[in-house]
UniProtKB/TrEMBL annotation, chain A:
Domain of life the protein comes from: Bacteria
Record field: transmembrane: 61-80, 176-197, 252-273, 280-299, 376-394, 415-434, 483-501, 522-542
Protein name, as recorded: Potassium-transporting ATPase potassium-binding subunit
Quaternary state and interactors: The system is composed of three essential subunits: KdpA, KdpB and KdpC.
Signal sequence segment: none
Pfam families attached to this UniProt entry: KdpA
Keyword match Metal-binding: no
PANTHER family listed in its UniProt record: POTASSIUM-TRANSPORTING ATPASE A CHAIN (PTHR30607), POTASSIUM-TRANSPORTING ATPASE POTASSIUM-BINDING SUBUNIT (PTHR30607:SF2)
Keyword list, A-Z: Cell membrane, Ion transport, Membrane, Potassium, Potassium transport, Transmembrane, Transmembrane helix, Transport
UniProt xrefs under NCBIfam families: kdpA
Length: 553, 711
């Protein structure tokens, strides 16, 4: 079988599996977030944290919950790392330095999982399991909660109430993420991923010398790493490491886990707003962009010129032979379009244009399909912008799902889309302009610039993947990426929740023949175009000086 | 409206006190182009507005449009930098074109405003300070300047006087020349009480004497508001305009970031970007096209209404008109011609149609009401009865129609003929001991049920008094109304006919006209309840009205169009006034509202789509020297980096001027579903916006490269 055919077949198998999971998972999540009942475990948790899950919250209260919970998470994770040296089960690793501890805490709480350390050389069992793995669940649950709050904003009318943050957080964790991750972990173990609490093994190599092998609860963390679009690897090599991702099947399975919740949430959205067709339109937008990016990536990676590359069947540098170009391209696109940031190959080693595609994927704002929850709310914000322009073109005050898009809504949506470009461009420019930060670059020229641009694109969009090459463990990068992650995560959430509150307070406008039909393919096409043009225009100069300069050379 | 209709139905006459609104003329189905979009653009206006365009360079004015303010700052910056390097032709060329970009934007606004100015001047002439004859408590008069009047003052106006302020007639009746505000030269009748009592300051009394109670302070009168309105001085930004401005501002910030962060990237790449180049890139990227034309579009939209003799008291109302999903239309004058007309003569058993026609014609010769005349017309058209004149019959005694007798007729010798309302004619026959054919009642009922009005024709001669037959008076639906309602339906707008008729009549007319729904035997309370019900469902409601009892509903409706002939209460309550008092215009108002939004959306799309080509021109120009691979992006094959950047800037400036006519005229609007409209506008302005600059920039580049010493 040719590598190209293998790549295409993998793509088709993936689409088939996702299609099978779409309706049941989407409907299930809609029930979870609409249900009135609490299961026993949840009641214990509510009692433990002293929250009343049945009170309705306005957007400000909901936001306070999100921020308080996340701040507590950052603080706890920071202290855990700072005290690691004194904790049992730390495998002898010392405490983490303040800048890196801040960066890592910000990283895992914001669902970014940017790692300026090597997992197997810095974090012991306690930090990995009680700190990082826990955040892998709850940071994902926070993302879904905020998305659900926005969906309620569309679904409800003449109320300022958006649901209860604590109930949404706990339910997302207990009823969605934990059970699915548990099943996924078992599948991964069955396919060869490791799951133990053993220490470090010194192993001799064939060629002489020795190598360290860490044990650890890898499969369980791997499952939620993908399912919660987290991406922080147990090992530095992330999903390229055979203990995390042993076979082509687990590779495909992990991509499935990455995509399944963000995609199925469009169904949840459709069900909750009372029109599954609206969900399909959002799904179609996400899938169109994703498939387009996969096709582009496979094309650039397979079609690369040069005898060595042709002999290898494509650009194989930095890719695992067990995944090949197809599996790596699929993983690379899926992880950068979903704010996951797990990698099974080195994006730095992709062709110039391929590297650009991974960057552009993140620059779109992680919305196709995006991170768990954040993908949906990000896409809905873009839909609001597209509806506004298109709505004017049909001669009515623009409305989406029966809610008018007036000055307040546009103001909040506009603030949302300003945040990440501002963070990416300002931090990148500062890193290029200041005297010391450029020392972190491994390469010179356009590729070196791409390393920095990628780092801040990844951090600000909460992706977490690294281009490799850049030494990010400096005070400058630890601090700036940490800030970029926190601001890139929570500022948009403020605008999303404010928007949700504003939408929920509106009286719905009934649809007529004069209403823009947002469930039609025409709108999907418009939305895809708006996303590509608006983000493309924002980053075009930067991309031109990085990946385009390299790729077109 | 209601009051007028009640009177009218009772008396069976429309002694129309005012000049009939356009309702007398069948509106017909005017071609779409005539309905919305007229207003020709005269290039000479550009020249005349140039001084105003320069005056608008004041930063305090410019800052209101964030996009153009950025261009202004950019122009200043490039000029300063060019002064430091005076030998650099490129810097000067860019500066010049950036200034032109700002001027063009101001010019667009000035031209839009200029069109209203002429009208405002005419109005000011009407407003020349008048002398008011104020009535004092003891009945004597004093002469004071019109500006000294206060609300509640009573003033006297006689033939030849200019009415000193807005008010209501409290005594007397007069014919008034309102051409100063309506442009219509035929005088109108204003009388105390009822729905024809409002007078407007600046109009002229032509006959008789009236006493007016002043209802508006000087300076806030209708004519003052009109002047402000057409001059654009009172223009406030509408919600959609504010929202669009926010979006444009945020796009401007995004591109500001993209350009401001570029120098460190470029320095790293080994090339230095000058301020001139950066500003040029920024101006090309920010949405200048729509930013420049946005306020012109708004002013022109209001102007289009003014051209149709509609005054919108707020831009918000115009915008709301585009969103309307329910139209309440009064039956009389809007859907039907307003005057019922004779449609057929139905004989009772024992007589013939021709006999009835003959008797009906004779008895209607003394009936000057439109209904009476229509009987004569029908007799002539359908039965070939020559129109006779009163003088032809010797010895005839004519009985004029009056509201009291509700009958007209003629006595020729012993033969007496009468025609009129069923009750009156029956009474007349019975008084004379005559017989009423049993089927007369049945026929009358049948006509009523079909939405018509039966008039009885009776005769008294040597055979005694008896009913001959029935004239079927019908509400005639205006031509083309059904098609209009179909269009509205396609646009997603529901039409509801409001009538004082009974449900049976209303239903028949509703079906004939093709409206979606009707409200029969409507009282002002019913109307109000209907509006509230629709609004509770999230719908926006538009209606017209003229009576005082319409005022609450006019105020409640999202778009309330008061007829200029109406009471001042109605005009206060509505948010638009139609100077022609033509209720059908509501449909045009909706179309203008939609067109306004479409024009904004289309030019925004065009503006954003333009950026793609500009990048393909400028990015390779900036960086191909250090990264030769980027020259592959130079798909337009522009001759030199300087020429590429300059061409993009020139295109960016010229496109503003090129689109001024479109901004003023508005995007062509045809009623169609939202889906089709989106596809069409996306195709023209989205796709067109992508492609046009590639061609435009290339052409400009070719021209520039022809200039010796450049390129």
């Amino acid at each position: 079988m040719s590598p190209v055919l293998a790549g295409v077949l993998q793509l088709l198998a993936l689409i088939g599996a996702l299609a099978l999971a779409y309706v049941p998972l989407g409907n299930y999540m809609a029930r979870v977030y609409s249900s009135e009942k609490h299961v026993r475990v949840e009641k214990w948790i509510y009692k433990g944290i002293g929250a009343n899950p049945d009170t309705e919250m306005r957007w400000t209260a909901y936001l306070r919950g999100v921020l308080a919970f996340s701040a507590a998470g950052v603080l706890f994770l920071y202290l855990l790392q700072r005290l690691q040296g004194g904790l049992p089960g730390s495998l002898g690793f010392s405490s983490i330095e303040p800048a890196q501890a801040f960066d890592t805490a910000a990283s895992f709480v914001t669902n970014t999982n940017w790692q300026s350390y090597s997992g197997e050389q810095a974090m012991g069992h306690v930090v990995q399991t009680a700190g990082l793995a826990v955040q892998n669940f709850v940071s994902a649950a926070v993302g879904i909660a905020v998305a659900v709050a926005l969906v309620r904003g569309f679904a409800r009318s003449r109320t300022g109430e958006l649901g209860n943050f604590w109930a949404d957080l706990v339910r997302g964790t207990v009823r969605v993420l934990v059970p699915v991750a548990a099943v996924a972990a078992v599948v991964l173990v069955a396919c060869g991923a490791i799951q133990n609490f053993s220490g470090i093994h010194e192993v001799g190599q064939f060629m002489g010398g020795s190598q360290q092998w860490n044990g650890g609860a890898v499969a369980s963390q791997e499952a939620i790493k993908e399912l919660g679009t987290n991406g922080g690897g147990y090992f530095n090599a992330n999903s390229a490491h055979p203990f995390e991702n042993p076979t082509p099947f687990t590779n495909l399975f992990e991509i499935f886990l990455i995509l399944v919740i963000p995609l199925a949430l469009t169904r949840t959205f459709g069900v909750m707003v009372g029109s599954v067709k609206q969900g399909y339109a959002i799904l179609a937008t996400m899938v169109t962009i994703w498939v387009g990016f996969v096709a582009l990536m496979m094309w650039t990676e397979f079609a690369h010129h040069g005898p060595a590359l042709q002999a290898a069947g494509g650009a194989m540098e930095g890719k695992e032979t067990r995944f090949g170009v197809g599996g790596s391209a699929l993983f690379g696109v899926s992880t950068t379009l979903t704010s996951t940031g797990a990698v099974d190959s080195f994006h730095s080693s992709f062709t110039g244009l391929g590297g650009g595609i991974t960057m552009l994927g993140m620059m779109l704002g992680e919305i196709a399909p995006g991170g768990v929850g954040s993908g949906l709310y990000g896409m809905l914000i873009m839909a609001i912008i597209a509806v506004f322009i298109a709505g004017l073109m049909v001669g009515r005050t623009p409305e989406y799902l029966g809610k008018k898009i007036g000055p307040r809504e546009i103001k909040l949506a506009a603030c949302y889309i300003l945040v990440t470009p501002a963070l990416v461009l300002i931090f990148t420019a500062a890193s290029m302009a200041l005297p010391t930060p450029p020392d972190s670059m491994l390469n010179s020229g356009a590729h070196g610039f791409s390393e920095v641009l990628y780092a801040f694109t990844s951090a600000s969009n909460n992706n977490g993947s690294a281009f490799a090459g850049l030494n990010a463990n400096t005070d400058w990068y630890n601090t700036t990426t940490g800030l970029a992650m926190l601001l890139g995560r929570f500022m948009p959430m403020v605008f999303v929740l404010a928007l949700a509150g504003s939408l929920a307070g509106q009286r719905p406008v009934p649809a007529t023949a004069g209403t823009l039909r947002t469930e039609k393919p025409l709108f999907t096409g418009l939305l895809v175009g708006a996303i590509l043009i608006i983000t493309g225009l924002t980053y075009f100069p930067a991309l031109a000086l990085g990946p385009l300069a390299e790729g077109l050379a | 409206m209601t009051t007028r209709r009640e009177i009218h139905e009772d008396s069976m006459s429309t002694a129309t006190p005012t000049r009939a609104p356009h309702s007398g003329v069948p509106t017909g189905h005017a071609p779409a182009e005539d309905r919305v979009g007229a207003g020709l653009f005269d290039p000479g206006q550009l020249l005349r507005s140039l001084p105003d365009a320069f005056r608008k360079l004041d930063p305090r004015v410019m800052v209101k449009s964030p996009v153009m303010f950025v261009v202004l700052v950019g122009s200043v910056l490039t000029t300063v930098f060019s002064c430091q390097d005076p030998g650099d032709w490129f810097g000067w060329a860019i500066s010049a074109w950036l200034w032109l970009t700002v001027i063009f934007a101001n010019l667009a606004e000035a031209v839009a405003e200029g069109r209203g100015k002429a009208q405002a001047d005419t109005l000011r002439k009407a407003k020349t300070d008048t002398v008011a004859r104020r009535l004092l408590g003891d009945g004597s008069e004093e002469r004071i300047p019109g500006t000294g009047l206060t609300i509640g003052d009573l003033v006297v106006c006689e033939a030849g006087d200019v009415i000193p302020g807005d008010g209501d007639v409290v005594e007397g009746v007069a014919s008034v020349d309102e051409s100063a505000i309506t442009g219509e030269s035929a005088p109108v009748i204003r009388e105390s009480g009822g729905d024809r009592s409002a007078v407007t300051g600046g109009t002229k009394v032509l006959s008789d004497r009236i006493v007016i109670r002043i209802t508006t302070k000087p300076g806030e009168t209708f004519i003052d508001r009109m002047i402000n309105l057409v001059e654009g001085a009172a223009r406030q930004k509408t919600p959609n305009e504010i929202a669009l401005n926010i979006l444009l501002a945020s796009l401007t910030i995004v591109f500001l970031l993209a350009c401001a962060t570029l120098p460190p990237f470029a320095d790293y790449a080994g090339t230095h970007l000058t301020m001139v180049v950066l500003v040029a890139l920024l101006v090309c990227l920010i949405p200048t096209t729509i930013g420049a034309l946005l306020s012109a579009i708004g002013i022109a939209g209001m102007d289009r209404l003014v051209q149709r003799n509609v005054l919108a008291m707020s831009g918000r109302a115009v915008e709301a008109a585009g969103d309307v999903s329910t139209l309440l239309l009064d039956k009389t004058g809007t859907i039907t011609l307003g005057n019922r007309q004779a449609a057929e003569f139905v004989p009772v058993r024992g007589t013939t149609e021709a006999e009835v026609a003959d008797a009906a014609q004779l008895s209607s010769l003394a009936d000057e009401t439109p209904e009476g005349r229509s009987v004569v017309v029908l007799a002539k058209e359908k039965y070939g009865l020559r129109e006779r004149h009163q003088g032809e019959l010797v010895g005839a005694e004519w009985i004029e129609f009056t509201a009291q007798t509700r009958m007209s007729g003629v006595d020729v010798g012993a033969r007496k003929i009468r025609k009129g309302a069923a009750g009156s004619v029956l009474a007349w026959v019975r008084e004379r001991g005559g017989t009423v054919a049993e089927d007369a009642d049945r026929i009358a009922h049948r006509i009523s049920a079909a939405g018509g009005t039966p008039l009885l024709v009776a005769v008294q001669d040597d055979e005694g008094a008896r009913v001959l037959g029935v004239v079927h008076l019908k509400d005639v639906v205006k031509e083309g109304m059904r098609e209009r309602f179909d269009e509205l339906r396609r646009m997603g707008i529901k039409t509801v006919m409001i009538t004082g008729d009974n449900p049976l009549t209303a239903k028949a007319i509703a079906e004939e006209a093709g409206v979606d729904d009707f409200l029969a035997e409507a009282t002002p309370e019913d109307k109000m309840a209907l509006i509230k019900r629709e609004q509770a469902g999230g719908k926006l409601v538009a209606m017209t009205g003229d009576g005082t009892n319409d005022a609450p509903a006019l105020a409640q409706a999202d778009v309330g169009v008061a007829m200029n002939t109406g009471t001042s209460a109605a005009k206060e309550a509505g948010n638009m006034v139609d100077l022609d008092s033509n209720p059908t215009k509501l449909i045009e108002i909706v179309e203008i509202g939609k067109q306004l939004l479409i024009t904004r959306g289309a030019l925004t799309t065009f503006s954003i789509a333009n950026d793609v080509a500009k990048y393909f021109a400028i990015i390779p120009a900036l960086f191909a020297a250090v990264y030769p691979g980027l020259d592959k992006l130079n798909i337009m094959q522009l001759s030199s980096p300087d020429s590429a950047i300059l061409s993009a800037v020139i295109f960016n400036a010229l496109i503003i001027i090129a689109l001024v006519p479109l901004a003023l005229r508005g995007v062509r609007y045809r009623p169609m579903s939202a889906d089709r409209m989106l596809r069409r506008n996306l195709g023209i302005y989205g796709l067109g916006g992508l492609i046009a600059p590639f061609i435009g920039i290339k052409i400009i580049d070719v021209l520039i490269s022809l200039i010796p010493g450049i390129g």
